[in-house]
Amino acid sequence: MSFIKEVPENIDELVKDANRMHSWETRLAALNELRKYDCQQSRDVIIRLALHDKVYKVKEEAFRASQALGLTKNGKPIQLGKKNIGYKQSDFITLFQRIKRDKKMDKFDLVIFKEAFKTLNPEMLDVMSFEKGSKLDSWIESIFNGLPKK
To answer: How far apart are CA 79 and CA 50, in angstroms?
Structure first.
């Protein structure tokens, strides 16, 4: 595979898109564009996504791009590692309890809850929307209904 050995005209926009932690689709699209170029900015972004992204699909694609470009970290090849979303069950419970308390929710309202979730922790919502897919709403409701009562 041949790479373009120049900096793309829209590199700043691509780097910003690759840093958008509230949208894994945007990060993946930016990564797919950046992987065509062999410049320092694209290399830096690809390495960071391959090492630190919480959405496994983005991390995996960045890992494949780093392999194709022959990128290393501290002289060692980048390893994919196992899937780790970076959140524990207690993180979800703490956030859900905060939303329930702040919004004074006695009864569950998905629309209000998701707005608060998006405001308080957009990255967590993004990761879980990828992980749960179409079952995100039912997952949110089941966690909410499982919260400890007063």
So the answer is: 8
Structure tokens at 38: 């062999």
* Residue the block writes with tokens 């419970």: 93
CA distance 36 to 22: 24
Q: Which two tokens stand for residue 33?
A: 């564009």
Tokens at 142, concatenated: 């089941």
Half-sphere exposure of 43 (CA within 13 A, CB side): 13
Indicate the pTM of the whole model.
Answer: 0.85
d(CA 112, CA 77): 45
Instruction: Read off the pLDDT of residues 96-139 as tens digits, 9 standing for 90 and up.
Output: 999 999 999 989 999 999 999 999 999 999 999 999 999 999 99
* β-strand partners of 37: 4
**Structure tokens, 26:** 């945007």
133-146 tens-digit pLDDT? 999 999 999 999 99
Query: What is the DSSP secondary structure assignment for residue 73, as one 8-state letter?
Result: E
What distance in Å separates the CA atoms of residue 63 and residue 40, rounded to the nearest whole number? 16
Q: Are 79 and 53 within 8 A, CB to CB?
A: no
If DSSP codes are grouped into helix, strand and coil, which group holds residue 110?
Answer: helix
